[in-house]
């Protein structure tokens, strides 16, 4: 029997059999599995992602991280407070723009990031088996990237709001 919507229209499928429900449920399931796996390190996937971004791009401001991770500045502030508390990041004033605070990973943060990537990989391996192998996982990954580009635009590199100071040799 078709389901009724608030506008009085009908759909041939119940909500739990639609693409939107499947994407929502998969997102929640993956997010939960990743965070459970990272619990032993006392970090979330968002926090690990921030440290990986810092490792990849060098010191960044909180605003740079919020834009690069596509999360709110408040979420970045909360994540950075926790990462600093556990010794994974340190903050320094920008060498030119003193009111800007740059964040970078510590040695402990880089070690934790390496362990975190290994833990995340165990979830990816489970997913690989569940979907039918590496080729199917790659196909699904490509599809998810296409969805993200369709909704958010093409991936853009992390852009620094404040340029690096000139190098002095």
UniProtKB/TrEMBL annotation:
Record-linked SUPFAM superfamilies: Winged helix' DNA-binding domain
Domain of life: Bacteria
InterPro entries: HTH_MarR-typ, MarR/SlyA-like, WH-like_DNA-bd_sf, WH_DNA-bd_sf
Residue ranges crossing the lipid bilayer per the database entry: none
The HTH marR-type domain, residue ranges: 16-149
Protein name, per record: MarR family transcriptional regulator
